[in-house]
Amino acid sequence: MNARPKKSFGQHFLHDSRYIDRIVSAMAPRATDFVLEIGPGEGALTLPLLTAAGKLTAIELDTDLIPALQVRAASVGELQIIHADVLKVDFTALAQRHGVDRLRIAGNLPYYISSPILFHCVEHFGAIADMHFMLQKEVVERMAAEPGSKVYGRLSVMLQLACRVEPLFTVPPEAFRPPPKVESAVVRLVPLAPQDRHDADAGDVYTVVKAAFAQRRKTLNNALKQLMDTEAIRRAGVEPGARAETLAPGDFVRLAKIYGGQ
């Protein structure tokens, strides 16, 4: 199967078996898992995952790819394909519909929409056991960045407040067809246990983090002036003259609580 990659879908098909094997080995799916793949494409990762798990559900937007993938999977295992935009799929409802507690998600995510997909996953972390994603290496670096780093930002904070971020390995452009212009990387995301999650309102956290990073060079006093005053920032235990990129994820939780009146 050699489908023509579509620029409109940001398609770069993984074909190097060495990296496919490493992803499957890192994920180590079992027959008892509910495995969900985002964007199966030509099935390079789908079929090995299907072989290991016996069954798999995939979300694919490109209708041209679905028939051939169904034919290839027929002799391997039970494949269900959901034709949909992944951002419109309710992962929590999907888990409930199939009578499972949590999903195990994998995917080679299109670069142009990777951040929206990650934020969508955050909204459903209660229904997700773990995620193994192939992303642009730069995005993985942002996801795992520590406070003070040049690439530490909104994505870093929101993901680290919800899960453990573990970069696994890089993947060169030549492992794809067509080769992208950048390196890729595989990352493992494991949602935090309920007792380790913050207790602030999720909407308040999002509002504060978004405002704080809207203009990176601004101090919190200026960046958050539409949300809270200087004294409120101090009550959160945060210095009003600090910049967002210097704050730990927990600092934003305290700010969010003050903002929300907790």
TrEMBL record:
Chain ranges of the Ribosomal RNA adenine methylase transferase N-terminal domain: 19-193
Catalytic activity: adenosine(1518)/adenosine(1519) in 16S rRNA + 4 S-adenosyl-L-methionine = N(6)-dimethyladenosine(1518)/N(6)-dimethyladenosine(1519) in 16S rRNA + 4 S-adenosyl-L-homocysteine + 4 H(+)
Chief place where the protein resides: cytoplasm
PROSITE patterns: RRNA_A_DIMETH, SAM_RNA_A_N6_MT
Enzyme Commission number, as recorded: 2.1.1.182
Protein keywords: Cytoplasm, Methyltransferase, RNA-binding, rRNA processing, S-adenosyl-L-methionine, Transferase
Positions annotated to bind S-adenosyl-L-methionine: H12, L14, G39, E60, D85, N108
GO cellular component: cytosol
Entry's localization field: Cytoplasm
Gene Ontology terms for molecular function: 16S rRNA (adenine(1518)-N(6)/adenine(1519)-N(6))-dimethyltransferase activity; RNA binding
UniProt cross-references to PANTHER family, sorted A to Z: DIMETHYLADENOSINE TRANSFERASE, DIMETHYLADENOSINE TRANSFERASE-RELATED
Role description: Specifically dimethylates two adjacent adenosines (A1518 and A1519) in the loop of a conserved hairpin near the 3'-end of 16S rRNA in the 30S particle. May play a critical role in biogenesis of 30S subunits.
Family: Belongs to the class I-like SAM-binding methyltransferase superfamily. rRNA adenine N(6)-methyltransferase family. RsmA subfamily.
Name of the protein in its database record: Ribosomal RNA small subunit methyltransferase A
High-level lineage: Bacteria, Pseudomonadati, Pseudomonadota, Gammaproteobacteria, Lysobacterales
Gene this protein is translated from: rsmA
